[in-house]
Design brief:
heterodimer, A: about 350 residues, mainly alpha, ABC transporter involved in vitamin B12 uptake, BtuC, two-stranded antiparallel sheet, 2 strands, globular, B: about 350 residues, 14 helices, membrane (chain B), ABC_BtuC-like (chain B)
Chain lengths: ~350, ~350
Amino acid sequence: MTAATPPARVGPGRATWVWRRWGVALRFERRSVLVCGTLAAVVALLGVLALGTGSLRLSPAEVLSALFDPDADPRARLVVVTWRLPRLLFAVVCGAALAVSGAIFQSLTKNPLGSPDVIGFASGSYAGASVVMLLLGSADYLAVASGSLTGGTVTALLVYALAHRHGVRPFRLIIVGIAVGAFLSSLTSMLLLSVSPQQAMLVATWGAGSLNGLGFEQLRVAAVVLVVLLICAATVVRPLVQLEMGDDTAVALGVNARRARFAGTLVGVALTALVTAAVGPIAFVALAAPQIARRLTRGATTLRIAPAALTGAAVLVTADFIAQRVDLPVGVVTVCVGGVYLAWLLVRQYRGGRR
Amino acid sequence: MTTTAPPPGALTAEPEPAAPGPRPGAGPARRTRLLILLTAVGLLLVMAVLSVMVGARSLSPGTVWDALFHFDDSDEHVMVRELRVPRTVIGLVTGAALGLSGALIQAFTRNPLADPGVLGVNAGASLAVTFAVAVLGFGAASQFIWFALAGAFGLTVLVYALGSIGADRGTPVKLTLAGVAFTAVCGGLTSAMALKSTTTFDVMRFWGVGSIGGRSLDILPVALPLVGAGIALGLLSAGSLNALALGDDIARSLGTRLAVARVSVVLAVTLLAGTSVAVAGPISFVGLMVPHVVRWFVGPDQRWILPVTTVAAPAFLLAADIVGRVVLPSGELQVGLVTALVGAPVLVVLVRRRKVSSL
């Protein structure tokens, strides 16, 4: 609910850097640039550490030489570039996609608890994958991925269609999404209760989301799709931020409310679909990353692509770094890491007396 | 958030009505609302009677009456006394607790996505129960109650502590975010423990859906006072919740003591939701859905929403439980599954048909 979020500092209150050349002027908020830079550095640093740890330990210097020097030890290059790098890049791609998707949905629903889950995508894809794994008895990566993609897409379309009545209102979207999501979760639970514990656990492990066993073939596709979707996201940001001020104001400013909402939903769902198909429904990044990013940049809206994407990437890379150490699906660690960090941010904010 | 469906033919510019603060006195006429309350009470009575009568072996009202008042050790009488009545009573208590706590938390946070679990109650209980199974080696549902209770209360205290650091303490948004953060951490730890051991996972997948079957009435001496206190505290908060809905400043100028109002609402939600999760496991959807539906019928006045929800929620829970017993010829569906399976379609139809009021 935007009504309860802190008032924005606008205009001259925020320090900016202006870049002018060739008749173009770009304004950057100083704090955002600094935050983004720091987050990128964190991702890079953790990435180097993650690439160096495992059954073959490498120092950061060895990792860097393996990455950039073609004449380095071929064994190190094999481990770092072929085996570990795809997983790291996948964490970056998925984290960024989830965070931007969450930012879009929180803006669309004007609700800090909003996330792609409100449109039922996660529960739909979980149900789809469970059906494939338990009823069709297939654990094949492609089969499960397409099952989850189908389940999620059908659910999202269903929710949007059911919520559509003289246009889609955020409130109705939320309620319908909750209802359909709860319905599907119950069906999935029924399935899980009817099979052996081992089978149920297999499904639950997929449901937590894991980055195991991914290679460059999948990564190439995912990265291209992400870039395309991020460009699409960049075009829907402006009208969506204006819609946060209320439909009347936004329409007066020339926004086509219905089209903007539809485009936003579409991009948000596509971003989630990308992640879910590739690695399963990783929880909480979409929920927490936009909130963390907004608190770091002290911005007025959660819908800022670069900070949100980098925060998501940082959260997921950190979580995966830990997940590999303790041998759990990354989704399990994500909620812990994201939750602790959100809690810490809240504490720090209150101490500082800011809202 | 908008309140009304736009008139047919409105093009793109759908007007957003001014922010809807609950206007006590607005909504249907007093007589209509009284009628709704009485209907809910009637429904509850019908469901309670049905819940004792219907099951794998259906009983006539006469048999039930005899079992209650002229008990004679026959199988049917024992079944009524030992299985059906406890189950119905547990359903009544948990249903009322879930419904009222949901209505309170939605009014308090002014967030339609909020459910009783938002302050961390369910997550705390699940974590404690998982810990009991995975580390301490407990295995029976009846032993989980104390762990669940401790976990639920412990985590809410933590959430409240985190949510009330700083200058303007205990505001709904901060409490919600603190709850979300702690819920996530507990959820992560719970799945981590569950996914490490098949035994734990197996116990937790059954406990985790929530059921009111197979509980004995021994827990009532503990549960009833807690729920009773929660209901009293919750219903008494109706006035201050109405005032809080107008915004903190106006509420204060109307004479509401903000800190007292907030603490009593949080305490009531914790008592109600915590007891309910301890008794029956985390039953989803009741606390989320029933307050919404009730609000659409009685309007935004909390003095009506809270009592009607307290009556309507157990009726819904018992209805779901009856469906769960009847629908499968062999065995039965846990009520935690049926609530969503039955309730979701109803909710979708209602949200599409009625002029819905947001918070």
